[in-house]
Write a structure and sequence with these properties.
By secondary structure, this protein is mostly beta strands. It has no helices and eleven strands.
């Protein structure tokens, strides 16, 4: 059974940093593309970043390029999102997603709230 559990969210002032974690279980983690999405109040869920495999390629939404970094630890079955220079517009629920390599089925975590406010 695929499980994704996000953690690390919270309240931070503008310009601050947070590191989100997504602990995975129940599947062959190293084979899956791992992604972060976010959903702000009243908006659709939007892509933030993904990483193909350890040391592999990464992709970022334009709005977070240069501020956010996605990494993964296949041994620990965890994907991280380091968020720096946070802005109020980064406020959202952040979700972790795993995409299966062949079926391309998507699995989601429950989300973690990030609030950027002074």
């Amino acid at each position: 059974q695929v499980q994704l559990v996000e953690s690390g969210g919270g309240l931070v002032q503008p310009g601050g940093s947070l590191r989100l974690s997504c602990a995975a279980s129940g599947f062959l983690f190293s084979s899956y593309v791992m992604s972060w999405y976010r959903q702000a109040p009243g908006k659709e869920r939007a892509f933030v970043a993904n990483i193909v495999n350890a040391g592999g390629s990464t992709n970022y939404a334009d709005s977070v390029k240069g501020r956010f970094t996605i990494t993964r630890d296949n041994a620990e079955k965890t994907v991280y999102l380091q968020m720096n220079s946070l802005k109020p517009e980064d406020t959202a629920v952040y979700y972790c997603k795993a995409r299966a390599p062949i079926s391309r089925n998507d699995y989601w975590g429950q989300g973690t709230q990030v609030t950027v406010s002074s």
